Structure to design on (421 residues):
């Protein structure tokens, strides 16, 4: 239950706490009043509601998810918690079970969770190895239509770079992406002709006017440096559409001078970065009977210091790549702040789950300024330590200035799918 009932109509949330960076100021947190009129943040006051310092954030943007994989753990658990175990298990489950109804129901379950937690926009990756592309992309288009007005949806295709062939079946996938207003995506890892494949990939994206989104160097092997090659190829080609790179774990295992030199290239190429700390913490440096030494998180402080846009996102949810999660961006914030030591740091990290991913993905902009939509998440907490100390299950979620029903779907709704073979 919400910790407070708010009236309908024009109102003033009196004495709330907001991140100063979301109102264009340089302090950490501010105590202020927020006025809401006709579904927007306003300069005009309304009915006054004393909030006693409750923290307010704009509705979240979750820019790296896998709705098509979500919630298969019950029938396809990771046998050993490793990355290879995840790849093998998901591949087998996809071939056996991912018909349209299965993908749609699980993806919708995830969206219902995200909406209840306060998310307004989602980019999902879709496994697009044929024939799955012709199954999942029509499902995505239907979901995008059905969720219009609640969650803005984008999708990026996902294949391994070894499957990319500019003259092969991927051209059909790229056309599906373009027809669906999507993003061209690929996983990069060391293959002998990766540079040629990247040239073909960027040429395909440019011909169709598509943004690019890569899964990059999701390993603790310091010798893996496809991020460097992506940056060099963007600079070489002059590819001008937004390019996002996710994970980038191997940077954390490299010698400092080499890693920082790569980041200089990333900044020069104008890449955007999305960090996925929860999934990386789960998979990376996992060895049976051995305590992990590496966290897997990429070099977010060093990136931010170079002006590289950095966002944080959920990644996988209750599937072999991550056994947990609920598409709750507050959990992503809480864990990212702890894992990445974002506390005692710069004061604008709050943008990394709202303004920054919205700008990267070209979702409608939203902050906490007058004229912005009153799509807000309100917490009883009054500062960062109170916010991150508890799950905030009694938060208030406003969409268009009105509180929504935050009832989460029950896992039992998917029980029949868990019996699939």
């Amino acid at each position: 239950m919400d910790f407070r009932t708010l009236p309908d109509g024009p109102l003033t949330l009196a004495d709330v706490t907001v991140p100063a960076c979301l109102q264009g100021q340089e302090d950490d947190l501010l105590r202020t009043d927020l006025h809401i009129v006709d579904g927007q943040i306003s300069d005009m006051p309304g009915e006054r509601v004393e909030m006693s310092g409750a923290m307010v954030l704009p509705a979240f943007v979750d820019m790296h998810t896998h709705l098509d994989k979500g919630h298969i753990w019950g029938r396809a658990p990771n046998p050993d918690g490793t990355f290879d175990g995840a790849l093998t298990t998901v591949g087998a489950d996809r071939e056996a079970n991912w018909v349209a109804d299965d993908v749609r129901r699980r993806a919708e379950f995830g969206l219902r969770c995200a909406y209840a937690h306060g998310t307004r926009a989602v980019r999902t990756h879709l496994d697009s190895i044929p024939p799955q592309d012709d199954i999942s992309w029509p499902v995505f288009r239907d979901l995008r239509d059905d969720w219009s007005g609640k969650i803005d949806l984008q999708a990026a295709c996902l294949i391994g770079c070894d499957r990319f062939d500019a003259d092969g079946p991927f051209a059909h996938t790229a056309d599906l992406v373009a027809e669906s207003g999507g993003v061209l995506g690929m996983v990069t890892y060391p293959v002998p002709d990766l540079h040629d494949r990247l040239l073909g990939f960027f040429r395909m994206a440019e011909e169709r006017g598509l943004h690019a989104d890569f899964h990059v160097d999701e390993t603790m092997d310091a010798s893996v440096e496809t991020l460097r090659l992506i940056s060099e190829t963007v600079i070489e080609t002059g590819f001008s559409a937004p390019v996002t790179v996710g994970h980038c774990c191997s940077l954390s295992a490299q010698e400092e001078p080499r890693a920082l030199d790569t980041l200089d290239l990333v900044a020069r190429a104008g890449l955007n970065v999305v960090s996925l700390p929860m999934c990386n913490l789960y998979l990376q440096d996992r060895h049976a009977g051995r305590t992990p030494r590496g966290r897997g998180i990429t070099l977010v402080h060093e990136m931010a210091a170079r002006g590289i846009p950095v966002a944080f996102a959920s990644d996988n949810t209750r599937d072999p790549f991550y056994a947990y999660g609920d598409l709750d961006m507050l959990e992503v914030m809480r864990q990212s702040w702890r894992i990445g030591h974002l506390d005692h740091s710069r004061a604008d990290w709050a943008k990394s789950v709202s303004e920054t991913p919205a700008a990267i993905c070209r979702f409608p902009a939203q902050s906490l300024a007058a004229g912005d939509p009153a799509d807000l998440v309100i917490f009883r907490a009054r500062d960062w330590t109170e916010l991150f100390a508890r799950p905030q299950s009694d938060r208030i979620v406003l969409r268009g200035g009105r509180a929504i029903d935050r009832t989460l779907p029950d896992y039992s709704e998917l029980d029949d799918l868990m019996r699939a073979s």
